[in-house]
Amino acid sequence: MIGLAFRFLNRMYVVLFVSFSLFSLFFIVLISMVYNIYWDGLFKDYHVQTIKSHAYKLLDDMRERGIRTGPLTVEDAEWLERRTRLYGLLVEFTDGSGTGVWYNSIDRTGSESTMIEEVPYIVGGEPAGRLRVAFLEASKELNPAMVNFRETLETRSKYLFGIILILSVAISFCLAFMLTKQLKRLDQYAQSIRQGKWVKHIPKKGTEEIRCLALTLSELSAELQKQEEWRKNLMEDITHELRTPITSIMTKLEAIIDGVYEADQKHLDKMYEELERLSRLVSDLQRLSEAKGAQFAMNKKCTDMTKLAKQVYVNYHPLALKAGIRMSFEPAHTPAYANADFDKMYQVIANIVSNAIKYTSPGGKVSLKVKWTKSHILILCQDDGIGIGEEDLPYIFNRLYRADKSRSRFTGGVGLGLSIAKALIEAHEGFIEVESRLGEGSTFVVVVPNFTQAN
C-alpha cells in the first residue's frame, strides 16, 4: 500500500497539481493577511477620526455650558461625565500647565486606552485649560454600525476567498492535466520507438519545451530507423563478404576432391587469392576494433606532415596517371609538424587519396594540400569525382557502410577504410570531416593539433 501510494504521489500530474495548489494557497493566505491588515487599519483610522470629531463636539458643548478653568462644580462634573460617556470618550481636563487636574476619567477606567490628541481649551479667545482625549480599545467593538459592517465584510471576504480557492484548485488541476497529457502522449510515442515501431511524424503541441521534445523524438525515431536499416545492411554485407570467398574456396576444393579439377598451381593460386581476401577482411575488422578501443601501439613523435603527405602523393601519383587522372600536391608555406605516428597517419592519408582516385573518372583531377594554422595542421584531399549524396554523408564513417551501393568486393574494399581512418585520427586527438555533392566531387579534411599546440 505504501509503495502504491508513493507511486501515485510521484506521478507528474499529482506533483504538478499539488505544487500549483500549494502555490495558490500560499498566495491566497498571503493576500488574506494583507487584506485583513489593510481593513483593520481603515477601521482604526475611521474610529480615530470619529472620536476626534466627538472630542471637538465636546469642546463646543463645554464652551456653551460655560465651563472654565478651576475646580468643577458637582453639577458640571456630572454633566461632563454624561457627555464623555455619550461620545465614548475618556477625558483629562487640566489647567494650562497640566499641574491642576479638574476632571480625569482616563485613570479611573483601569482599562487599556489609546491616547488620541491633546488640545488647548479656548474660551473667549483666552486659554482656559488643556484637554487630553483618549478612548477605550474595547469601544471599537461596541459600535453597532461598525460591528455590523465588519461582520458583513468578513462574511463576504470568506465567500470571496472560498471561490478563489476553488477556482485555484480547479485551474491547478486543469494545468496539471494539460501538461501531463502532452507528456503522456510523448511517452506513448517513446514506447513505440522502444518497441521498434518507428514514428514518422509526432504532433508538436503544448509548451515550447514539449514541442522541442516532440521534435527531438521525431528526429530520434528517424535516426534510429536509419541505424536499424544500416545494421541490417551491415549484417548482410558481413555475411556476403565472408560467404563469398568461403564458398569459392569450398567449391574449388570439392571439385579437386571429386577429380573435376586438378590440384595444379592455377587452381591453388585462385584459392589463395580468396583466402588472402578473407584474411584482409578479418585484419581490417581487427584493426578497426583495436582503433575503436585504442588498443593498438602508438609511436608518436614530431612528424613533418608536409613530408608525409608528399610521400603519399609520390606513391599514388603513378596510379593516378594510369587511371587518366591529374594529381597535384600543394605543400604548406610554413613548417607543419604534428605529434603523430608516421605509419598510421600515412595509412589515413593513403586511404583517402586511394578512394579519391578510385571514384574519379578519367580526365578528372585530385589535389592534395597541406595547410598550417596556429593550432592545427590541415590535410585536404579534393577531387571532382562522383561525390557523395547528402543522405549518405552522415554515415560514410560507419563500419562497412558504402555510399556506392553498386560497388562490389571486386571494385573496392568492404567499407572499413574510412572507419579505421576516423578512429586513427581521433587517437591523434584530431578529427576528419567531409564536404561533398553528388556528381561534383568531395573534399576530405584531416585536422590534427600541430606540434606546438600538442606540447
UniProtKB/TrEMBL annotation:
PANTHER family: PHOSPHATE REGULON SENSOR PROTEIN PHOR (PTHR45453:SF1). It holds the Pfam family HisKA. The chain crosses the membrane at residues 12-38, 159-179. The keyword Membrane applies. Keywords: ATP-binding, Cell membrane, Coiled coil, Kinase, Membrane, Nucleotide-binding, Phosphoprotein, Transferase, Transmembrane, Transmembrane helix, Two-component regulatory system. GO terms for molecular function: ATP binding. Residues 261-288 form a coiled coil. It is a multi-pass membrane protein. SUPFAM superfamilies: ATPase domain of HSP90 chaperone/DNA topoisomerase II/histidine kinase, Homodimeric domain of signal transducing histidine kinase. It is found in: Cell membrane. Its EC number is 2.7.13.3. It catalyses: ATP + protein L-histidine = ADP + protein N-phospho-L-histidine. Residues 177-229 form the HAMP domain. Residues 237-452 form the Histidine kinase domain. This is histidine kinase.
